[in-house]
């Protein structure tokens, strides 16, 4: 049994625990010194180590609108997330699936950006790719008194989605 209490049992390397910067160092414990100062290992950058940044409201809504307008989700999935005529428009347009997959490729959200023209309002646009086809989607979000964001309007490819008017093909 080893009498060295600075190293965990079963550890075979000769380095011990690293000491704090500016603290005492011995030749056997810690990093070696160089003429320019102590040698340090740069921190590894990994996506797993970066803190998770929550999605912004317009990114979240773009994903949900894409799922409904491509037929991946039912329109009632947006029931509590729309105001005004936006839900009625989605309910009439969802069966025609204007953002459906083409040639077996599932549509994906490529880019989504938003602007805040006034407090409690976000106007956003997104580009959606399905195979070799790219479509544009614009929508407006409004924040209610309960601080929840709701979709108030949706447009595809420059044409406003209205009941009875098919989208561009």
Give structural notes.
It is built from 2 helices and 7 strands. The chain has helices spanning 57-69, 86-93, and strands at residues 33-34, 37-38, 108-118, 121-130, 133-143, 149-156, 159-160. Residues 25-31 have low confidence and may be disordered. It is α+β, with helices and mostly antiparallel strands and 169 residues long.
Oligomer: single chain
Q: Which structural class fits the helix and strand makeup?
A: alpha+beta
Number of helices: 2
Q: Could you describe the largest sheet, including whether it forms a barrel? A: 5 strands, antiparallel
Total beta-strand segments: 7
**Portion in beta strands:** 25-35%
Spatial ordering of strands, largest sheet: 3-4-5-6-7
Q: What is the terminal separation in angstroms? A: 76 Å
The Rg value, from CA coordinates, equals: 27 Å
Share of residues in helices: 10-25%
Secondary structure layout:
Blueprint lengths: L32 E2 L2 E2 L18 H13 L16 H8 L14 E11 L2 E10 L2 E11 L5 E8 L2 E2 L9
Antiparallel strand pairs: 1-2, 3-4, 4-5, 5-6, 6-7
């Amino acid at each position: 049994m080893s009498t060295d209490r600075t190293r965990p049992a079963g550890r075979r390397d000769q380095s011990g625990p690293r000491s704090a910067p500016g603290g005492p160092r011995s030749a056997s414990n810690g990093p070696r010194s160089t003429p320019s100062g102590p040698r340090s290992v740069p921190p590894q950058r990994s996506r797993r180590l970066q803190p998770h940044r929550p999605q912004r409201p317009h990114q979240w809504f773009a994903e949900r609108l894409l799922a409904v307008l491509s037929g991946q989700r039912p329109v009632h999935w947006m029931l509590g997330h729309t105001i005004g005529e936006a839900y009625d428009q989605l309910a009439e347009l969802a069966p025609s699936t204007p953002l459906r997959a083409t040639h077996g490729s599932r549509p994906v959200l490529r880019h989504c950006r938003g602007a805040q023209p006034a407090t409690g309002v976000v106007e956003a646009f997104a580009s959606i790719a399905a195979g070799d086809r790219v479509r544009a989607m614009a929508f407006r979000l409004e924040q209610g008194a309960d601080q929840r964001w709701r979709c108030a309007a949706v447009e595809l490819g420059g044409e406003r989605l209205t009941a009875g008017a098919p989208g561009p093909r």
